[in-house]
Design goal:
alpha+beta, Phosphorylase Kinase, domain 1, Transferase(Phosphotransferase), domain 1, 5-stranded antiparallel β-sheet, two-stranded antiparallel sheet, 48% helix, 18% strand, binds adenosine-5'-triphosphate, binds magnesium ion
Length: 264
Amino acid sequence: MRRRVRARWFKREREEAERVKDRDLFKTVEEVFDSLTIDHVYRLYRKGVIWELKGVISSGKEARVYWAKSRDGEDLAVKIYLSATAEFRKSIKKYIVGDPRFEDIPSGNFRRLIYEWARKEYRNLKRMWEAGVRVPRPIAYQANIIVMEFLGENGYRAPLLAEVGDELGPDYLSSLFEDLVAQMELVVCKAGLIHADLSEYNIMVWKDKPWIIDVSQAVTHDHPYALEFLERDVVNVYRYFSERIDLGVSREELLGKLRSCLRV
Ligand SMILES: Nc1ncnc2c1ncn2[C@@H]1O[C@H](COP(=O)(O)OP(=O)(O)OP(=O)(O)O)[C@@H](O)[C@H]1O
Ligand SMILES: [Mg+2]
């Protein structure tokens, strides 16, 4: 990222963190954890994965992402699924149809549903990482908790594409797009997956490159909606960049290239 844009981003983040005092962050950490989650965090601590849980990076409806430290002082991102609202259960249905891991979960067993969902995210992350996709390095999985590489510095996360895209020049955006297309090819053609929620909100810009995050809903090629999900990902990415720069490739060409890798 341009040095100026980057400096401005981290300054904003610092100011925000100062506004939300440490005490509040700690309170949040304490309040939202049920005893089982505390137990699982503790297990990760005993395994030597997490040394210190620092503060909240993001609190979505279902999951929170925390900044943590490993025993060696490495920054970690810890994503913890905390609840399964009715809306969430409804929204994930489409991604788990025909998936045997989910079929035998009794309908009221929300905890198992969350564990399975978190495990699916970890496995997807691992599969992408092993295929060479630029995703946060997967580090550990435990029940409703995923531990991965932290993207950012000094506890401040890197920006999402949606947050900085408009401050980046056309050349920079062009190179992000080109790189992103290569990442999408790796996801589809090498990892054999479709992200299924790809957009400027699930792409972080870090070290001048696009990083793909939030892979819980990714599906394999044999999923009944695989093609529909792939098309949606392409539409999202294409829309974002084509509104800002000249791409020199049509949406159909891009989709065609990726679709040719679908194995079913
Ligand atoms: N490895 C990471 N390093 C730094 N920040 C991260 C990392 N993973 C996620 N984040 C931050 O946490 C936010 C939420 O993560 P993610 O998108 O995986 O969860 P989510 O459940 O989809 O939340 P949301 O509904 O807000 O998208 C991201 O938008 C990003 O700002
Ligand atoms: Mg997300």
